[in-house]
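Recap for those who missed Tuesday's class. We walked through two folding examples back to back. For each one, the amino acid string is listed first and its predicted C-alpha cells come directly after. Nothing is annotated here on purpose, so try labeling regions yourself before you check the end of the notes.
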Amino acid sequence: MDSNSSSGGPRARDLVMNHIHICLRFIELLVQMFRVLASRRRRVERTYELGYDKHRQIIHNLVYKSDETCYKMLRMGRKPFEKLRDMLYAHGKLRDKRCVLVDEQLAITLHILGHNIRNRVISTWFQRSGETVSKVFRRTIRALIRLHRMLLKHPVPIGPNENDLRWSYFQGCLGAIDGTHIPIIVRNNQKARFRYRKGFPTMNVMCACTPSKLITYILPGWEGSAADGRILRDALSRRNGLKVPNDNYYLVDAGYSNCEGFLAPFRGQRYHLSEWASDNHPAQTPEEVFNMHHAKARNIIETCFGALKQRWAVLRSPCFYDVKMTTLIIIACAVLHNFLTMEVPDDLLDTMVVEGQELGAEDDASNEPPEVISQVGPTDAWTAFRNNLAIDMWDSYH
C-alpha cells in the first residue's frame, strides 16, 4: 500500500505540471490573438479617418460648392438644402451616424428621389456600401414624413375678396382634388390588381391642394385599377382622413360625382382647357361658361402633379422598391413639394410645368372640429347650388 502511494506521487505531480504548462501556453496564445486584433482595430480607425475626409469632400463638391451643381443633383439650391437639413435634425429626429452625417444622408436621399437611381449606382457615387445606402434612404424618408405636421397645413377657404380671377367665383372653395397614377413594380400575382388602363401597373394616388399649390392631403396605396370615386369614399371614411367642412368644397373633375363638398363640371359639355384655347368658339350656354371657369381653377391640381413629377424622377418611372416603401416615398415627395413651394415660390421647375397610407393636415386639438362631410352622394340642394353658380357666371360673362 505504501509502495503504491509513493510511486503515484511523482506521476500525479507530472500530470499537474503538464496541465499547468498547457494552460500557460493557451493564455499566451490568447494574448497574442488580442494583440493582433488590437492592431487591426487601430488600422481600421486610421482608414476610417481618411475615408471620412474623402466623403466630406464628395459632399462639399455636391452640395456646398455651387448652387448650380446642388440644384442639378439634389433638385434644390444650397439655402433650401441647409434649412431642410436643420429641420430634419430638429424635428425629423434624423441624427449623425458613426460615419454618415445628416447632410450626407439627406443628399443620398434627394439624389435617389430626383433621379430614380439604383442602389449600386448611388453606392459608387457616394463611396458607401449598398447596405449603408439602403439604411440611410429608409431612415431619411421616415424623417421627412415626420415633418408633415409643419408642412401640410389646413386649407383656407376662398373669400369674397379673392383677387385671383380663376377662383373669385368659387367662394368657400378649399382647392382641388384629383388622382394621379404612379408607375410601380409589383409581383406577378399582383399585376392584375394594379394594372392601369394603359396596360402597366400603377398606384392611384389621391391628392388635395390649395390654389397656391400646397398639398393638404395625400392618400397613396390604392391599386391603379381603383376608381377615383372609390378612393374618395375611402378617404372620407378614415378616422384621420380627408376633412371637408359642411360649408366648404373642393373642385373635382368628371371622374367624381357632383355631390355635397365636391363640385364637378357638367357632363356632355366642353371642359378641358385645350377646348377653350381658341376665341373662335366662345361659350354658348351657362353650363359651358361654368365648365370653362371650373377647368381654369381646377387645373391647379394638374400643375401640382406636374411639378411633383418634374422634380422627382422616382414618381415618373417605376422605382426599385416594394409597394409599402413606394407609399412612403410618395408621401415624402409631397412633404418636399410643400417645403420647396414655401421656400422657393418662384422655382424654375415650377415655371416649366404646363398644365394604404394617408397624410393630411393634423387637427388642432385645442379647437372644436367643424362638422364635416362623411359620405358622398348627389343631393337636390347641391345640384341647385351648381346651377345657380352657372347662371351667375353666365350673367357676368355677358
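Example two. Treat it independently of the first, because the proteins are unrelated.
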Amino acid sequence: MALSQRFDGYLQPFANLILLPVAVLVSAWIVTSIAKQWMQSRKQRSQPVKVEAAAVSEKTSIIEPLHGFDWKTAPRRQLRPFKPTYHITMAIQSNIPSELITIDEDYLDRITQRRSIIATHGSTVHGCIPGGDAAVRELYTYLLSEQLPKRFPTIFQLSQDNSSCMNLATGMSFPTTPQGSTDAALRVLGETIEEDFFLLQQTPDGHQSIAFMCCFPSGFDPSTKLGKTLVEIHAPVPSYEKIGSSMERFFAKLEVGKSVKRTNWSVQTHTELFNCQGNHITGDDTYEHDEDVDIEKTFLRIELQTLTRLPKTSAVLFSFKTYLYPVRQIKEEGLGSAFADAIEGLSKGNAPGMWTS
C-alpha cells in the first residue's frame, strides 16, 4: 500500500533550530518512526565588523496601522509549506516591516505561557553576550515605541509623553526605552510579543549570535547557541555546507528597511511549545517505542521566520513565530497524501541526510 494511502486512512498505529536554513526540517526521530512503519507496511566571537547601515527608504519603513483590529477574533495563519521533494535552500520571500510582528486569537494564551516559561527557565530562554546590549536596547525601543503602537493601535497605546506603552490585552505597561538590565529588557519583549528571536552581529569569523529570547525552542537548548557563529550553530544540519556561504553573504548584504521571510516545518508527538530536547535524532542515535504515539497529540509544527537589519547597530534580527496544527486537521483538509509525499521526499532531494533511516 502506498505511503499516501496509508496516511489518508490514518496509519494505525501512527508512529511514536535556531535559524535552521532549510525550507523543511522534519524532526528526525519522528520521521524515522513514521517511515519505519510505513516502509514495513509496504515490504512487510570575535569583535563585530562594522557594517554601514543603508538609509531607510520612506516606502520600506512605513508601518501600516490595523485600525479596528480585534486580536480575539483574528484567525491564526494556515501555513502548509511542505513539498514533494526536499531541496536545501534559503527559500526566502520578500516581507514588509508592518508584518514583522503578527498577532492572532492565540495571543493572550501564548503570552501567559511565555511569562511562565521565562519565570521558570530563566537563562535557558534568554541571554546576551557582552557587546550585544546595544542591539537589544535598539530592538526594545523600536518595538515598544514604534512598531507595536503603530501597527496595533487597538492593543498598544502610548502615554501622552510617549514614555510608556500600555498593552490593553494583558493590562501590562512598560517604558518605551529599557530602564534596567539587558536581561530585563529581553524579558519584557518575551512577555509582549509571541515571536522568538536571535540577534546576530557580523564578525571576522561570520555572523555571531549576540542575544536571544526563545520561549518555544523545538528540540534544542537556545542558550547553547549564544556566542556561536552561523557555521557553529548549523553544524548538526545535514548538507548545510551547500548554502552556508550563501547565507553569510545574504546576511551581510541585507539592507536596512528591507525584510524577508521563510518557513520551516517539523512533526512532534506532544502539545508542548517549549521543548529543549526530544524532537531530533541524528547520526547513530537510537530511539524506542515507535508505536507509542497518540495521533490526537501529533502536530505539524511550522515556524514563520523573518530577517531584518536594525538601522543603528546593524545587527540582524532573526525572529520566528511558531504554529501548531493537528495532523488530523491536515488529513481533514485533504492534504494527507501531499504530507506523506513530503516526508518521503526528504530523501529524494539534494540533502538526503534530512532523512534518517
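Answers for example two:
The longest strand covers residues 299-309.
The radius of gyration is 21 Å.
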